[in-house]
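step 3/5: co-fold with CA2
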Amino acid sequence: MSQDTDSVTDRVLVLNGPNLNLLGSREPAIYGKETLGEVDALCRDAAATHGLEADCRQSNHEGVLIDAIHEARGAHHGIVINPGAYSHTSVAIRDALAAVHRPVVEVHLSNIHRREPFRHHSHVSAVADAVICGAGSHGYALALAHLAQLVNKEIR
Ligand code: CA2
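step 4/5: write C-alpha cells
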C-alpha cells in the first residue's frame, strides 16, 4: 500500500502551556471540570477520528514549549496550541511557530475577549491559521478537525 493513502496516520502536536496542568482542580466555572489527562484523551480520540495521532504535551516553561515547537519541524504535521498566559506575552513562542512552517490552530478554553483587557490580545493569533476560544474542551476537538483539513491540503 502506498504511503499516500488515507490509512497513513499523521502525527500532530497538541501543546498546552503554563498552569493548564491544574485543569479540573480549580476555577471550573472558567476552565471546565475536566483534568488535563481527560482533555488529552479527548484530543487523542478526536485526532484518531480524523486519521491523526495526537502527541499531547504540557509545560510551564517557555523554553520547553519553544523546544517542542522546534521539534515539530521534523516530527509533526501540524500543531494545536493553547499557550495559556504566554499567548499574551510571548513574542518568542510566536516566532517559533512562524519558523516551523506547519499549520497551527490556537485554542483557548475560555472566551478571552469576554475577560480582562490584558487577555484580549494574543501574539500567537497572527501566526495561527485558525483561533478557537470559548468552546471549553470541545475547542480542542474543533481544532483537531480543522487541523486535519489543513494537514491534508498540505501533504496530499
Ligand atoms: O482560556 C484559556 O485556555 C487560557 O489560555 C488559559 C490561561 C489564561 O492565562 C489565558 O488567558 C486563557 C490560564 C490557564 C490556567 O489554567 C488553570 C486551570 C485551573 C486552575 C487554575 C488555572
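step 5/5: annotate
The longest strand covers residues 10-16.
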